[in-house]
Amino acid sequence: MADSYTPLGSGTSPSTAGKTPLLQLRGITKAYGAVQALSDVSLEVYAGEVIGLVGDNGAGKSTLIKAIAGVGPPDSGEFFVEGQAVKITSPQISTRLGIETVYQDLALCDNLDVVANLFLGKEERTPMRTINELTMEKRTLQVLKTLEVKIPSVRTLVASLSGGQRQSIAVAKTVLRNAKVVLLDEPTAALGVVQTRQVLNLIRRLREQGLAVIVISHNLADVFEVVDRVIVLRLGKLVNAFDIKSTTSEQIVAAITGAEFGSIMKDTNAPSEGI
Ligand SMILES: Nc1ncnc2c1ncn2[C@@H]1O[C@H](COP(=O)(O)OP(=O)(O)O)[C@@H](O)[C@H]1O
Ligand SMILES: [Mg+2]
Q1: Is 35 in the pocket of ligand 1 (CB under 6 A)?
Q2: Is the pLDDT of residue 273 over 50?
Q3: Atom of ligand 1 nearest to the CA of 57
Q4: Average pLDDT of 125-153?
């Protein structure tokens, strides 16, 4: 049974019908002590598809990303990559399966330039085992061009880049590592309007390259601009999967909050935290 793959119905858009997902989760469950952070979460993401993962604070979004990234393996549930059952028990295994994660802290080295950051720990070597700066620089230029990322120079120190550029470098790093699935945790949370635009554009480029992208976002405007499907978590459960083309923000907010339709409006002015 663990080796067989059954497509799930919910939220699968017609364009993906009959295809095998790049990544599928089935029945993912995880508790932290008495807190049930994830209960029986099943979803799939296809090549060339962007999924928005939304939900209130504590809904389980980060726990889900950490499970896929191998940082916090689930208590139970199954993963399939391109239809094959896999066990993701460490970040190294996740990476080997072509899954790369960009966390909010980005994990870039401010004191190094763009090329050094992109190749950190995986530097290209010449036959003499010295670092091959030229090859790395060429690859960097190539990847940034493909992704339409604009920076002053690939030799710029990351410290002097804008927030949007830094986010773009962190994403470019995943592409350079041959990611098939990219997980982004709130990529636009700390960005202004122009930089947000750059990052949304970058996500579109990832889709064009045939990658599968799962992006956590609090910003429904961003979600509507860039995702194909929205998955809503509430209290650790997947409550809804929407095709973005046939969904309104009211429906998504209702799913996030658990509000009935019609009672949403009176909730929109309520503070989201600290109640
Ligand atoms: N390391 C942890 N230890 C204990 N509880 C945790 C831990 N990480 C998350 N949780 C709990 O699990 C639930 C889901 O958290 P999280 O995945 O961070 O939600 P989100 O990212 O959607 O805000 C919350 O109730 C949170 O308090
Ligand atoms: Mg979180």
Answers
A1: yes
A2: no
A3: 23
A4: 88
